[in-house]
Backbone:
């Protein structure tokens, strides 16, 4: 660099740049190393995050392969990261649990159905073998044919009930038309008078009570509840049937003052093929309340059973009215008491 002086001379000044160049090189090296380190760290972090996020998917694949190989107990380990993959793992486990529960119910249902069918089939087979072997006397043939007819009717009812439950499980649509619960209760009370003339059935209905539903299935609900109350209570027990409207729902209540059930039995009352006391005779196959619950839930309603030893049993059915006017249709005249 040239610098002028006062005497008109020029002076050339030179400053070494070694330190500047060294500093520049060190700065560039630091920047390069930092950038390389950042790339490595970002790559490792991205790989780790990808592995973390995709690990449940890989586990889903492994579990699916294991299940297809016969190991139904395998489940996907769920992470707490809240990622879409973890949600997928949770949904997959829920699906497997539900599928396993369905299979267990199906196996139990088939076992119970086989058990129920075994007795009538064995009876019919035994009577047929006796007839084929000529072991029946002439006066016994009519009685044997009567027993075969009874066992055949029993199997027919059982098969029809199981088919109905299967259709309800499939979610098949039911008819949707205005149905007056009061009319159904009147018919059920008259049927009870014909089948149990010595029993008292009191009916309390406050005018028409119309809901939307399948009349044949709702009639079956009322008949099953009334019949269940009559069959499983003593001859002196009374049965009350009431229908009322609460806001936008129709409420059907069947109450008896029988012996009642403890809480553990009441909790299983709607289980299929279950009886509170099998030793007290074979009144049906234990599907009545299961059918009631299936039909009511198919209508979007609910059913609740309350019972206690010595305090009787109450079954409360709630069905949506779906805006149907309670004045639709003509309700049959209902007696307050049928004896």
Residues:
């Amino acid at each position: 660099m040239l610098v002028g002086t006062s005497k008109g001379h020029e002076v050339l000044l030179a400053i070494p740049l070694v330190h500047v160049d060294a500093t520049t090189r060190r700065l560039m090296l630091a920047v390069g190393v930092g950038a390389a380190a950042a790339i490595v760290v970002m790559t490792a972090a991205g790989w780790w995050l990808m592995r973390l996020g995709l690990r449940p998917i890989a586990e889903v694949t492994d579990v699916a392969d294991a299940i297809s190989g016969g190991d139904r107990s395998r489940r996907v380990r769920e992470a707490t990261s809240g990622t879409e993959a973890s949600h997928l793992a949770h949904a997959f486990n829920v699906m497997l649990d539900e599928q396993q529960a369905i299979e267990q119910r199906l196996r139990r249902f088939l076992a119970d159905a086989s058990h129920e069918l075994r007795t009538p089939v064995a009876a019919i087979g035994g009577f047929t073998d006796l007839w084929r072997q000529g072991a029946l006397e002439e006066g016994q043939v009519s009685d044997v044919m009567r027993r075969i007819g009874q066992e055949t009717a029993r199997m027919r009812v059982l098969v029809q009930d199981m088919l109905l439950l299967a259709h309800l499980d499939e979610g098949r649509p039911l008819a949707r038309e205005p149905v007056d619960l009061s009319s159904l209760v009147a018919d059920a009370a008259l049927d009870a008078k014909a089948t149990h003339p010595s029993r008292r059935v009191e009916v309390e209905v406050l005018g028409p009570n119309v809901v939307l539903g399948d009349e044949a299935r709702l009639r079956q609900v009322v008949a099953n509840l009334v019949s269940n109350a009559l069959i499983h209570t003593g001859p002196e027990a009374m049965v009350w049937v009431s229908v009322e409207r609460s806001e936008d729902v129709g409420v059907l209540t069947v109450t008896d003052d029988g012996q009642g059930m403890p809480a553990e039995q009441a909790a299983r009352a709607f289980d299929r093929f279950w009886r509170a006391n099998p030793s007290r005779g074979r009144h049906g196959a234990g599907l009545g309340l299961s059918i009631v619950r299936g039909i009511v839930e198919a209508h979007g309603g609910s059913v609740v059973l309350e019972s206690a030893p010595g305090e009787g049993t109450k079954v409360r059915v709630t069905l949506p009215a779906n805006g149907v006017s309670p004045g639709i249709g003509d309700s049959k005249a209902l007696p307050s008491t049928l004896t």
About this structure: Residues 204 and 242 are 5 Å apart (CA to CA). Residues 325-339 have pLDDT under 50 and may be disordered.
